[in-house]
């Protein structure tokens, strides 16, 4: 994984200087990458093939650089593993279980090593309650390949984000199919669509991860106690500053209405051509 091409909800870097807030143009501003307290967001790291070379140390670090806790055992117990292939390995963490460690509300990052390489995660914000937030989950029915490796979507791995956003201001679209006869449009099918939209203000590494979401077979949006099975997901963004993009995410749910019109009631219309008569619709 290159430093400017992230595929995970929680990115990792080979050097701590690549954390988003440490970049020269970020002016020290830390993005609020939200996670539930005592939870670590899912991630995958591709490394050079080192068969049987396991993770030897995972440290939970405070944003100020001090060590909070050694969570190696907790992460391994929760499923941190390595899948080996001929040319590369994938370090995988599903992020489905809480870690047994004291993690007060605050800003943290992980420092992880296999004894050969050391990786530093992006900074994340541990909060005590995520129920009021918009939750975005995505997973694919098979692995997704890219130049340096692949994203392994073996169950239960899925991408997860929490955003301080609202699902509001949907758009409505009407599609009509038909045929024009003697200047009159005869509708053969009508489809009404409702498209849900939410907006987020995010840095580049989340924009990168959302590219993966847009490719996935399964996307679920949870908001205000409701779950939406998202289809035809569309992402559009505008950079508001050097570090943050305003991203609109649109999707359709089970809100499509389809109608096949009946022309039985139109037998009293006298101005149509002879090839459109009452018997045509009986």
Report what the structure shows.
The chain is built from two helices and 20 strands. It has helices at residues 72-77, 204-215; strands at 12-13, 34-36, 43-48, 57-62, 67-70, 81-84, 88-93, 106-113, 118-121, 124-127, 134-139, 144-146, 149-151, 159-163, 171-181, 184-202, 218-223, 226-239, 245-252, 257-259. A hairpin with a 4-residue loop joins strand 4 and strand 5 (67-70). The protein is elongated and about 80 Å long.
How would you describe this structure in keywords?
seven-stranded mixed sheet; mainly beta; disordered C terminus; eight-stranded antiparallel sheet; 282 residues
SSE map:
Blueprint: E1 12-13, E2 34-36, E3 43-48, E4 57-62, E5 67-70, H1 72-77, E6 81-84, E7 88-93, E8 106-113, E9 118-121, E10 124-127, E11 134-139, E12 144-146, E13 149-151, E14 159-163, E15 171-181, E16 184-202, H2 204-215, E17 218-223, E18 226-239, E19 245-252, E20 257-259
Parallel strand pairs: 2-10
Antiparallel strand pairs: 1-9, 3-7, 4-5, 4-8, 6-7, 8-9, 8-10, 11-14, 11-17, 12-13, 15-16, 16-19, 16-20, 17-18, 18-19
What level of helicity do the residues show? under 10%
**Which regions contain 5 or more consecutive residues with pLDDT less than 50?**
264-282
Overall 3D shape: elongated
Radius of gyration: 25 Å
Tell me, rounded to a whole number, the average pLDDT.
90
Structural class: mainly beta
- The SSE order reads EEEEEHEEEEEEEEEEEHEEEE
Number of helical elements: 2
How much strand content do the residues show?
35-45%
Number of strands: 20
Describe the main β-sheet briefly: 8 strands, antiparallel
Q: How many angstroms does the end-to-end distance come to? A: 64 Å
Q: Count up the domains.
A: 1
